[in-house]
Amino acid sequence: MNQDEIFEKVREVLVEALAVDEDEVTPEATLFSDLGAESIDVLDISFQLERAFGIKIGQGELFPEGVTQDPEYVQDGKLTDKGLQTLREQLPHFDLSAIEKDRSVQNVVSMFTVQSLVNFVAQKLKEQNA
Amino acid sequence: MRWMWIDRIVELVPRERLVAIKHVSLAEDHLHDHFPAQGARPPMPVMPGSLIIEGMAQTAGILVGHAESFREKVILAKVTRAELLDDARPGHTLRYIATIENLTKQGASTRGIIELLEPDGSDPRPFGSVDLVFSHIDHNITGTEFPDHNFVFSESFRTLLRTSGIADDFADHEADHR
To answer: Which of the four pLDDT bands, split at 50, 70 and 90, describes residue A59?
Structure first.
């Protein structure tokens, strides 16, 4: 399955899960601000991605659990070294370069773009077929 | 017994499927306001669609709760899809059939079919479908904490389980909690 095919299926999942229009789901769109996802949608999206692609998504793989609320990981609205390290460990499939430059917590939320989901699924499919 | 929108559980296959029934009765107060007479139109008592969805949420919620012996606080997080094809009127019986689609530590998604039984004993006919997502809220991704006591599966739910002949699986750990 190539990137375009994965994107099309991810788009179908997001249209269904978030009740958004197809043309709103662009690769650059962020899940939480542009597409209006809430934390509970992550569970639904993860269930629907599992079904659409026949993959298994473990706890915390799609979204870092509790990291942004933990004072050990976040101080004054910015990720600590430990917080960044934890994100790297929890989310090996995500591009964290923007957060490495600017550690504002908002950046953690905005890294969840449609493209990041496509990359996540592509990596999962690769692991599965390896 | 307040806010119970199913009358009896008639079938339970743990972690898979739960079937419950609801008899629609003219003794239910809200039916007299839904809808009252208006001008020349006579009263039209029909069960509100929102309460039919609640009935499925309770059916599926018990199935999800039972899977972990009612230790988890199972909260309805999302109505993924709901379609009701007809009206449920006094004398009708609704049959809720819920199946688990996904079940993880964080929550579950369920599929639900509703059938309607006429009082004449004819075969059930399709009435609608309601698909839901539930959260096990103690494992929510935002890290929010909730009280220890399981406020979801209250006495009303336990009574329903008992009167339906289903073992009250959560009696033991509730006792531990006290």
So the answer is: confident
Say whether A44 and B106 touch across the interface (CB within 8 A): no
Q: Which of A39, A41, A50 sits opposite B140 (nearest CB)?
A: A39
**Ranges of H-type helices in A19-56:** 39-53
ipTM value for the complex: 0.76
Nearest by Cα to B70 from B173, B175, B176, B178: B173
pLDDT at res. B173? 54
Please give the DSSP secondary-structure letter assigned to residue A104.
B
The shortest CB-CB distance from B135 to any of A40, A59, A69 is to: A40
Q: Inspect the interface and report whether the beta carbons of A41 and B78 lie closer than 8 Å.
A: yes
Residues A79 and A34 both lie in one domain: no
pLDDT at B175: 47
- How would residue A39 be classed by pLDDT, with cut points 50, 70 and 90? confident
Range of the domain at A103: 64-111
B34 is catalytic: yes
Whether residue A100 is found in the same domain as residue A117: no
* Residue A83, C-beta contacts closer than 8 angstroms, at least 6 positions apart: A67, A70, A72, A73, A74, A103
Are both A117 and A86 inside the same structural domain?
A: no
Same domain, A90 and A100: yes
Single-letter amino acid, residue B108:
A
pLDDT of B178 strictly over 50: no
For the domain bounded by B8-33+42-177, which CATH number is listed? 3.10.129.10
Tell me which of A44, A49, A63, A87 to substitute to probe the interface with B (most B C-beta atoms closer than 10 Å). A44
Task: Give the per-residue pLDDT at B97.
Answer: 98
pTM of the model: 0.85
